[in-house]
Amino acid sequence: MKVVLIFFLSFSAYISLSAQPYTIRGSLKDRSGKPLIAGSVLLMPLQRQGHIDATGSFVFTDIPEGTYTLQCRHLGYKPELRPVVVTSHIVLDIVLLPAEVNIDEVYVTAQESEGLGTSSIIDKKAMELLQPSSFTDILELLPGGRAVDPNLTTNNKIDLRDGDPISSGYNTNALGTQFSIDGMVLNSAANMGTISNLTSNTSTPHGARDNTFTGIDMRSISTDNIEKVEIMRGIVSAEHGDLTSGAILIDRIKGVTPWSARMKADGFSKLFSIGKGLDFKRKAYTLNIDGGYLHANQNPTDQFTSFKRVNASARGEKKWQSSRFIWTWGHALDVNTTIDGVRFDPDVNYAGTDRYTSKKRNYAFSNRLAVSNRDKNSAFRRLDLSASVNFGDNRVEIDRLTQTRSATLLLNAMEEGSHEVSYLTPTYVAHVQLSDKPLNLSFKAVSTWRFKWLTDHQVKTGLENRYSKNLGAGQQYDLNYPLTDDLSTRPRRFDAVPAHNNLAFFAEDTFRLRTGRFSWENGLGMRAVMLTNLSQDYVAARGVYIEPRWNSKLHLPDMMLHGKPLKASLSGGYGQQALTPTLIYLYPENIYIGIPELNYYHNNPDYRLAWANTTIVDPTNRALEVAVSKKWELGIQLAYSGNRLSVTYFRDRLLNGFRSESNYSIINYRQYQAESVDPNSISAKPDLTDFTWRDVARYESYRITNNGSASIKEGLEYQFTSRRLAGINTRFTVNGAWYQTVSRDQLMSYNTMSSNVIIDGNIKQYLAAYLDNDNYYRENFNTNLTVDSYLPRLGLNIAVFAQNIWWKTSQTRPKSDLPVGYYDISGSYHIYTEEDRTDPILRYFDRKTDPITFRKRTVPIDLQVNLKATKIIREKLRIAMFINRLLVYQPDYTQYGMRIDRDDKSAPYFGMELNLTL
To answer: Which residue range forms the structural domain that includes residue 85?
Structure first.
């Protein structure tokens, strides 16, 4: 028994000793023996994180016997995976080697593309330093761009190559800029979310947020999952269509990525996002998921006006191959919600009754299949097929207290003619609901071929079809309690509006000709567009619109300078780009013109009698044409020893952009004399026949869409990018632009006299015709200097932006004060003569504009200095901050004998963000 007991105790002691915990000690150093104190050490598979002290040393205690892997990382060095077999205490000295990072390839500003056509490329690195909240912020990096405070509580429209855009009447530039995300076009042809009497007034809550006529609202585009953006400002490839100004191609992050989270805060907004790229190796499939939330206020002290954005995305990609082909299938599901809210302070407004809410939900599903030929000798190279479904559910709700100052007639008839009407309730809360549900279906097939005829040709041919339909219920409100007393429209269902179908074919040949040491690269394309679901009584439906496009680049022979080659090329091109009218332009809602004929308002409500005439006008313009932009450009590009310079001169002529203007009709009605019935002599409600009357007529206006807007742009864009200077890893980037824009109304304008001018007891008896109306001139010149230092070993990236507007000029150009002619109430036309200027009535058509209105105004230098910095800690944590307007220089100036004091300088705007990678 004693022997057994001794054996048992000895065996237990042996087991205890063999299972004792061990210690792993070590240090991190570089090749020179310098301790690396900001690294990370992870013991796997225990997932234990080691602490590195000021000497670069670390220690792991209580480690059971076994086999482990020690993962050592430090920013700027190659990661080290060290297998460790633990059978006793261990001491390790780990030396990390510098990472082979080509810092000269790291750009934190926009790069000018080296391909055909003028475009800027902005990658993830640049956006990380920029710290954008929405796509609007990215435009700062373009030539001519400038940092501005975010304005996330109003519609953010895009205006390429326009330094000082005009908001009203010239929206074709914004509407004609196409956004594409992973090849899926963000089509706005079916957007109809306008509300009568509110959209045209940008001071109203809905007017400031409605993007029906301006295309994509850039607030809705999150930047957190973007890998790269290409902004095509010049002549766009024939593959892209239904545009006039340019194309924005957004590529999102794909492939395996760690968990990442971003948190940003500034004086206006709070943002949070998270994302991850998953790898399913057995199925050769990757899945990227991400989501984000943004909340912004109009200003830090205004909690009643807000904007929210919630977005989520799942993107998958699978690859497989056969003996001849490589197949890539990509698909994405996206959900995006934006909410605009306006509440009014009950202490200063109508007891809290007024409120505005706009909620836009968007659901998108896209599929892409690419088939690439592995046989490099085959003429067929690639086939790309894509299809997408994009559905929006946009809802607007408005509550507004409405009060009348007098006995106002309620002109809400649904049929034409004269009829008895009632009076508007003196005080009530109007409630309006808008249901806007655009559905967009698209299909695109692109084949790529390569063949040899005199030289190598790469030919793209394709077919694209975009179908757009609105399934919404439109505006819904009680006709007895309208939002305004000017009730010029009636509720209309959007789903009753026909669909929009854009069918396009395109072909493009890219080839290069070589003569000696010269190389001439060309991209020659053509796009043909048809509106196939539009009635033939529309001009836009007749025939096929052809859009020729040509981009060219002549590469000059290299010239040796101090032993290094100087590369130079000359570029140029010409192109036409067409934008088809959207549904809201093709199918506007009917206009209801209500004119009071009798307003007999008795003290006794039972004796009151009101009568009105209603005329229904169809403002559809079947002569509306496709808007066409014609542009050409010339440029030069130089590259020497890592330094690059590009200069581009362009002219862009859009002469038939869409605009809404006043049109007039002669309205005949009967005018009853309320004073012909003595209110003191009646004992019952009078009859209409009791009143004396006379037949009269007058001109009344309504809005119609035409092709009257002209935007003529001319400019020079330039960018110089230096190589990174050795030692300090600093790059200098200078870019900017000179822009000159003329915006004018191409068509004759019409106007009636003021209602205060009474002619024989009647108003609006004449209609004058003027040759000119809008005519604006704008010019500005700016230069931006960016100095950025990229220091990978310190985990620091810092950039200083000096953004200077040298001058900004604006002018309302002179126009004739006198009409060329006028129409009388019978519709007869008369030439306006010199004698008419002294006529007691016709003299009122002299607009008598003050000459000061047409003075050219120039604002001199406006310089601001901004700072952006990013610090990376242990490769897992990135802390960034920015300060806009750290320094401001806006000197006072004198113009036309007046001193302009610019003491009202903007305060600095700053914010911070935190990025975590797991």
So the answer is: 2-95
